[in-house]
Amino acid sequence: MRTRVLAAVVAGALAPLTLTVPAAHATAAAVPYDFNGDGRADLAIGAPDATVGGQSKAGAVSVVYGSSTGLRTATRTLITQNTAGVPGTAEAGDAFGSAVASADLNKDGYADLLVGAPGEDVDGDTNGGTVVAVWGSPSGLSGARTVVNYWEPETDRYGQALAVGDLDGDGDLDIVIGSTGSSALSFVNGPVTRSGSFQGGSGSGFPAPYSASYGVTSVTAGRISPAWSTSLVVHGRQPRTGTAVTHLVTDPSIGNYADWLQELPAGTVSAIGDIDKDGYADIAIGNPAETSADPAGAKGGKVTVVYGGPGGKDGSRAPLVLGQDTPGVPGTAEAGDAFGSSVFLGDVDGDGFKDLAIGAPGENLGAGSVTVLRGTASGLTTQGATSYTQNTAGVPGTAEKGDRFGARVSLTDHSGDRRAELTVGGPGENTGDGAVWSLRGASAGPTTAGALSFGPSATGIPTAGTPRYGSVLNN
Q: Are 45 and 64 in contact (CB under 8 A)?
C-alpha cells in the first residue's frame, strides 16, 4: 500500500512519499566494502563506459581485494550484467558501475555491494535505470538481486547516485538512491536480503531550487551528530541555471522534509567524517566549477569544509574554504584545474583524525593531481599538505595531458594496519583506458614507496572503446 504524506512545500524543501512495511531485526553488520569478511576493506572500481560482450558502454565493476600488503590484483572479481547470478543483460549504454555503495545489508558478516546502472532500459522506459545488490561471502562477491524501485513511473536514471545508512534508527541499513524525475531521492527500507520481500520505502520529489531533469546527482551518508543515526548530504542542480545546489538532510526519518533541510555551500561531491574527533562529523564539499559556470565556484575550483555540531552544522565555526591559492596548499589556482572534483575523508596516518584527499583532474591540461591535508584536534590544517602527480617520485607512470589523475580519490584501509591507503582514479590514462593508483598510508602521510598502479586489463576489463576505468571508486 502506498501512502502519500502531504507536507508544506517551500523553496528547497522535499515533498515525501512514504511506503512502510514492518521489518525484522538482524545481527551486527560488517564494515562497508569488506566483502570477504577478512577485516580489510576491498576496492570497487567502476568503469561505466566499458564494453561488455561487444556492447559499448554497457559498464563493469572490478573488485580488488585487500591484503596485509594492500590491494592485490591477483585476488579480484569482475562484475557485469553478463556475470552469472547478476540480473539483466549487458546492453549498450547501460552504464553499469556509474555509482557504487556498500554495507552489510543482510547482516551476515560480509559486506555487500550496490551497483547503479542508470542507463538501463526498464519495461520500455529508456534510461529508466536499475540498482543491483551483489552479495558478500567468505569467497568474496557472488550472486545478486535487483533492488526494488517503488516509484518507477516517477523516476529515470535510477541509480545514478547511491548511499547506505540507517535512516530511521531501527538498526537496519537502508538504501538511498538518486535519480532524475519527480521522485529524485528514493529510500528502500532495510533489511535487504538475498530473497524474500522488500520492506517498503519512500520517495521525494524536488521543487525549486532542484532541477528534476538533473535530479540527485550525488549523495553522501554519514552520522553527523549522535542525535540522528544517519544524515545525508544531497547534491543537485538549479532548474534554470544548472548551477550546483547542496543541502544537509539532518534526519531523513522526519515526515515533513521541510524540517530537515539545511543549506550547505554549493558543490557537486562531498565526504563526511570527524576531522577533529569532537564527536561530530564534518562535511567536505567539492565544487570544481569556475565562477563563469557557477557563481558559487572559484578560479581553479575549491573545497569547503563545514564543521559539524549538535544541530548539524556548527554555527559557531566559520567554514574553511580551500583552493590552490590558500596558503599552505600546494600549487596555484588556474582556470580549469577542477580542484574539488573528488573529495574523501580518511585517516591516512593512523592518528585518529580524519585527513582529506582532494582531486584536481584538470591540473596541467588535464594531467591531474591529488592533494592531501591532515586532520588535527583543531580541525583541518594546511601545514604539511602534500601533493601527488604521476611525476611525483615513486608514483608509477608519467603525467600526460588528459590523464585526469585525481578524477576520483579514496582514503580506505585495505591492509588492516589502521592507516588508509590513498587510492586515485585516472580515467583518461592511456587515451581513455583509465587506471588506478594506490599509495600506502604512513605516519608521515601517503608514501610512494611500493606504490601500485594497474589498468583495466589487470582486472579483466577489455580496453575496447574507452572504458574510463577508475571513473568510480569506493564512496
A: yes
- pLDDT tens column, 54-66: 999 999 999 999 9
Instruction: List the one residue out of 273, 280, 427, 434 whose CA is nearest residue 357.
Output: 273
Identify the CA nearest to 217 among candidates 341, 319, 56.
341
CA dihedral 206→150→144→425, nearest 10 degrees, is -10
- Cα end-to-end distance, the chain, whole Å: 33
**253: burial class by Cβ within 10 Å (0-12, 13-18, 19+)?**
middle
**Does an H or E element contain 327, and which?**
none
**How does residue 359 score in pLDDT terms, banded at 50, 70 and 90?**
very high
Using 50, 70 and 90 to split pLDDT, how confident is the model at 255?
A: low
DSSP 365: H
Q: CA-CA distance, 123 to 225, in Å (whole number)?
A: 41
How far is residue 365 from each of residues 133, 291, 399, 409, measured CA to CA in Å?
38, 19, 10, 19
Task: Round to whole Å and give the CA distance between 201 and 137.
Answer: 26
What are the tens digits of pLDDT across the range 273-317?
Answer: 999 999 999 999 999 999 999 999 999 999 999 999 999 999 999
Contact assessment for residue 27 and residue 107, using Cβ atoms and an 8 Å cutoff: yes
Q: Which of 434, 446, 410, 444 is nearest to 66 (CA)?
A: 410
Cis peptide before 209 (omega within 30 of 0): yes
CA–CA distance, 437 with 455 (Å, rounded to integer): 9
pLDDT category of residue 50 using cuts at 50, 70 and 90: very high
Distances (CA, A) of 86 to 80, 200, 273, 276, 406: 7, 23, 33, 41, 30
Give the DSSP letter string of 88-134: S---TT--TTSEEEEE-TT-SSS-EEEEEETT--BTTBTT--EEEEE
CB 62 within 8 A of CB 78: yes
